[in-house]
Amino acid sequence: DTGKGQGGLKWVGVAHYNGKLYCCPYDAAEVLVINPGTARVSFIDTGKGRGGAKWRNIAPCNGKLYCCPFQAGEVLVIDPDTATVSFIDTGRAQGGYKWNGIAHCNGKLYCCPSYPSEVLVIDSCTASVSFIDIGNEQGAVNWICIAQCNGKLYCSPATAEKALVINPDAASVSFIGTGKGHGGRKW
Question: For strand 64-69 and strand 128-133, is the pairing parallel, antiparallel, or unpaired?
Fold first, then answer.
């Protein structure tokens, strides 16, 4: 029992680190930490308060955990060894369904674009961000999840007609058509 009551989207996404599970705060004010060995939970306060659909999904990289900014203007960085948080500013305003999934590849993290026409790239070594332009493929929740395979990243189409393929080495994108047309939530 988290002691936080039922209902709402408190946490969205979970990642494993050093024997514990860390849940990404969506509307919650804290990171939820689950210790499967003791069947107990604890929390790490973000200092950002409740509500706001702040972050969505989480991935480990270089001893820290990174939460993808959904409506937040910054990446949430969790240091599980010290149970503290910090932030990396994206340079984008709060609000708007920006990115909707995060995956690690070649020492960096990549966030799947939801509405914007750019992939967010997080450099965990320099605590900085950059972007990969995807052109005119904008729309409503185009892509929703991201996974790494054979050195590339693939974003599943939610309403988009094409899967998004990110080539991190070339900092470029390409697309794989599904033949299912644009619109409607598919995958």
Answer: unpaired
